[in-house]
Amino acid sequence: MDICVNCGAQLTGPFCANCGQKRFVESDRKLGHLLHHLLESATDLDSRAWRTLRALLFQPGLLSREYFEGRRARWLSPVSIFFTASVLYFVAQLHGGDFTPTFNQQVTGHIRQLALGPDEKPLTPQQAESTGQLHSSITSPWVEQRVRERDAKLRAATHGASGYSYHDYRLAYEAKSDDVSKALIMLHLPFAAVVLTLLFYRQRRYFAEHVVFLMHYMAFIIIVLQLLVQADALYRHLAPAAWAIPDSVLDWVMRVLLVTYAILSLRRAYAIGWIAAVGAAAVMLAGLMFVNLYIYRAIQFAVTFALT
Fold first, then answer.
1. What are phi and psi of 72, to 5 degrees?
2. Which of 41, 53, 75, 272 has the fewest other C-beta atoms within 10 Å?
3. Using one digit for the tens of pLDDT, what is the confidence trace for 292-305?
4. Mean of pLDDT over the chain
5. What is the pTM of this model?
6. Which of the two residues, 264 and 21, has the higher pLDDT score?
7. What is the pLDDT confidence band of residue 276, given thresholds at 50, 70 and 90?
8. For the residues of the chain, what is the DSSP string, one character each?
């Protein structure tokens, strides 16, 4: 009697009628079997992974709509999509920007001036007078106290031979800040989902469904950002320096893509008209910006400060 090795049910064909597992045979133990499945998964353009990626990039809102309506077997789960994108984002060489703010983006102009390296140009009067982020008035004294304490401790230990500067702390901070930023990017999801809950309260959707939509949207942001950065790096490597594309151009390309994708994905996922989609996109993006500037950056600074 043939028994399924997975669930113990009797086998009557090549697949178990109870759990669906393929009948196990001795050749399944061999390396060739594993390599066959690896090659098959990588080249199967109709697999769930490739199908999901195509839908995410080229059919805005489709994955969310399918999830809302219960058609989920054909696609990777939103958690898998967001987790995979987040892992790629975590290992990427990205520094600065809205999601990975640097030390200079997080502190006042006064602290930034004190933390300049020996080869860096002095700040302009406007930069030196910057108040930084909303949290900077509270967190700047933290930096000042930490630098004073470490400087005093180091001078005492070396009998005044060396000290600890703001630039030293800036280097320590930036060694950690990127990883902290990338680990905390998911903080945008619950706060922005509140905005979508209020926008679409008449649709009576679960809070988790709005989180799913934002997982898809944030995954798109991460993947497109990666593609643009890598394409720009390749272009800079191949093209003459005189043909370099200004960073501002790439910033605007990213902004246009994100706004356009937001409108298209909201329209399809929530089954609304064009005018409503444009309005909803404006409110959602404003909500994401608010979360980024006033919640995410404060938490990112606090966590990085605690680790350095």
1. -120, -15
2. 41
3. 999 999 999 999 99
4. 86
5. 0.79
6. 264
7. very high
8. --B-TTT-PBP-SSB-TTT-PBPP-GGGGSHHHHHHHHHHHHH-TTSHHHHHHHHHHHSTTHHHHHHHTT--TTS--HHHHHHHHHHHHHHS---SSSSS--HHHHS-HHHHHHT--TTSPPPPHHHHT---STTHHHHHHHHHHHHHHHHHHHHHHTTTS----HHHHHHHHHHHHHHHHHHTGGGHHHHHHHHHHHHTGGGT--HHHHHHHHHHHHHHHHHHHHHHHHHHHHHHHHS-GGGPPPHHHHHHHHHHHHHHHHHHHHHHHTT--HHHHHHHHHHHHHHHHHHIIIIIHHHHHHHHHHH-
How far apart (Å, rounded) are the C-alpha atoms in residues 68 and 209?
Answer: 7
pLDDT at res. 215: 95
Residue 146 to residue 134: CA distance in whole angstroms: 20
Report pLDDT for 114: 92
Tokens 């180091």 label which residue? 154
For tokens 């009557």, name the residue. Answer: 12
**Average confidence (pLDDT) over 137-166:** 92
